[in-house]
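User: Last request for today: this protein with phosphoric acid mono(formamide)ester, please.
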Amino acid sequence: MRHFLTLNDFSKDEILDILNLAAEIKKEAKSKNYISYLKDQTLAMIFEKSSTRTRVSFEVGIHQLGGKGLFLSSRDIQLGRGEPVKDTARVLGRMVDMIMARVYKQSDLVELAKFSGVPVINGLSDDFHPVQLMADLLTLSELGLNLQTMKVAYIGDGNNMTNSWLMAASKLGFELRVATPKGYEVLQWVLDIAEKNAKISGANLIITNDPKVAVSGADVVTTDTWVSMGQEDEKEKRIKDFAGYCVDDAMMSLAAKDAKFLHCLPAYRGYEVSQSVFEAHAEEIFSEAENRLHAQKGVMVWCDRKRYE
Ligand code: CP
Ligand code: NVA
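Assistant: Here's the final one, the structure of the complex with phosphoric acid mono(formamide)ester:
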């Protein structure tokens, strides 16, 4: 059985296989041909944090695949009152076919995977957001970018999205430039993994505190909120510390001609991205959001198939 906890658990070929499967399922869905690949299966969806896209895309996705999604807020289930993850995993594993969880600690996902006996999908943790990256990669490939040779610039906080971009680049081999303010760099353990992967894939990883260095000539520019879920108390300090990191027209003008801009959303205009850049790239951004649905259907079907191989 395979889980989907971080892209680091996947080979380049596996990531590309899942993307191809997602593209195929998307094509079927676009012609209203919803094939019940997961007929009568149940997906438990645990949420310790808020969500719009992840909740809706998984719930609609499992429905379109012929199954049913169960929304389980940690505020309502016993997990939120202290029932161990290990016990929650063993209960759910006896009733549902797959689990998606949005949690604080990545180690809770590992625990769910270890004890549930069913595939577990990471719907965002403090460390990684791999399903978002699958949607981003699907979007870029639809926009005609080569997932092995493109140059991507990530501008902003060294967070779960940055870590996931590092896993994607280092596995697939594309160039990733990461610019964070001082004090908000990607953690060393993540860089160690990425650099090890990059030795095999040939990916060029550039880590800097200068957004201009990162964005210069990039084919794709991306960013994320400066204040991730759980960091609300640091908001004021972060807004000061991230001065100069807003992706605005001046910054985009340094990127390649016709460079794409992605944002996982929710976006905070005037902070990590200007209103003008956001609206100029709205088509890309909302295709990226739509692709959460298609990419995750690919992930769910792929994980299900792996159970029977
Ligand atoms: N991008 C993303 O995961 O959005 P939600 O927090 O709305 O799920
Ligand atoms: N880094 C953000 C991503 C939201 C989808 C957060 O964790 O809040």
